């Protein structure tokens, strides 16, 4: 028993170590906000020396992103960090991919995205080398409804490829590439409120799907959206998230958010040891 417990503990240490590394390359927006509250003076950031934290992490100010963005997607391939779309304001969304060369600490030329690509709250996965996959999410500003759209971005050819749509529109679902298959888990219905538990998967080879339709997998025990997802030791982990989110004012053509919602935050953590298995 103690050996199993030790293995579980080791896996979670690796899991959070991976995410801690991801936080080191997170967007400038979050870095600035945290440091500004720490120092009390945002204007002093660019002249400040690196800030060493107690756990050994070292935060360093990098060049500002070409646009201030909220709820953007991200993917890291080698030394390049891709910041995908997002809100420029609640009333305006981005259709641009910004690329940061982390080695030279410079932003490269921005890449236009298809107008049909969801702007926020989409699932993002990648193969670690060339391809970035985007599934579901919200198309449009404010509290626009979810869509089922799926795209692959070929970073070598700088080209976009439309893949088979999800079986239904999903908002704020989680996406992971695992053993040659994209796994889309949970999210919310088109209404942005109703949490779902159905996972779907589809086999892919580069920028192409191997089938015309997504397969239905075993449902996760607790429905939810905005969840973290990670692959550790060839096992899939899904954790945290919430149920409920802002919804648009009924019959409003601009999908203006009501500003009134009830959200339930989740503590649950689930593991899938093999594709098609039980959680």
Record the SSE blueprint.
Layout: H1 2-24, H2 28-39, E1 51-52, E2 58-59, E3 73-77, E4 80-89, E5 92-101, E6 106-107, E7 111-112, E8 123-126, E9 131-135, E10 150-154, E11 159-163, E12 174-178, E13 181-185, E14 199-205, E15 208-209, E16 215-216, E17 228-232, E18 235-239, E19 242-243, E20 264-265, E21 269-272
Antiparallel strand pairs: 1-2, 3-4, 4-5, 5-6, 5-7, 8-9, 9-10, 10-11, 12-13, 13-14, 14-15, 14-16, 17-18, 18-21, 19-20
Q: First CA to last CA: what distance?
A: 20 Å
Helix content: 10-25%
Mean pLDDT across every amino acid position: 86
The best one-word shape is: globular
Q: Label the structural class.
A: mainly beta
Report the strand count. 21
Helical stretch count?
A: 2
Radius of gyration: 19 Å
Low-confidence stretches: 1-47
From N to C, what is the helix and strand string?
Answer: HHEEEEEEEEEEEEEEEEEEEEE
Strand fraction equals: 25-35%
User: Largest sheet, if any?
Assistant: 5 strands, antiparallel
């Amino acid at each position: 028993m103690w050996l199993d417990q030790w293995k579980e503990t080791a896996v979670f240490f690796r899991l959070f170590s991976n995410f801690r590394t991801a936080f080191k390359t997170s967007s400038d927006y979050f870095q600035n906000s945290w440091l500004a509250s720490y120092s009390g003076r945002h204007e002093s950031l660019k002249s400040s020396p690196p800030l060493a934290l107690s756990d050994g992490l070292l935060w360093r100010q990098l060049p500002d992103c070409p646009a201030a963005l909220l709820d953007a997607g991200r993917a890291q391939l080698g030394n390049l960090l891709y910041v995908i779309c997002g809100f420029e304001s609640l009333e305006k969304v981005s259709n641009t991919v910004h690329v940061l060369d982390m080695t030279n600490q410079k932003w490269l030329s921005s890449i236009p995205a298809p107008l049909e690509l969801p702007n926020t709250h989409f699932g993002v996965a990648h193969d670690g080398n060339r391809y970035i996959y985007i599934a579901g999410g919200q198309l449009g500003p404010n509290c626009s409804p979810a869509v089922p759209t799926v795209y692959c971005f070929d970073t070598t050819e700088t080209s976009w490829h439309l893949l088979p749509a999800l079986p239904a529109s999903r908002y704020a679902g989680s996406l992971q590439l695992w053993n040659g298959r994209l796994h889309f888990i949970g999210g919310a219905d088109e209404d942005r409120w109703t949490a779902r538990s159905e996972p779907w998967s589809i086999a892919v080879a580069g920028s192409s799907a191997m089938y015309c339709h997504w397969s239905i997998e075993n449902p996760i025990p607790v429905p939810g959206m905005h969840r973290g997802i990670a692959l550790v030791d060839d096992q899939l982990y899904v954790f945290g998230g919430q149920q409920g989110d802002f919804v648009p004012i009924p019959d409003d053509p601009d999908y203006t958010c009501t500003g009134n919602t009830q959200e339930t935050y989740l503590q649950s953590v689930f593991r899938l040891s093999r594709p098609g298995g039980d959680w």
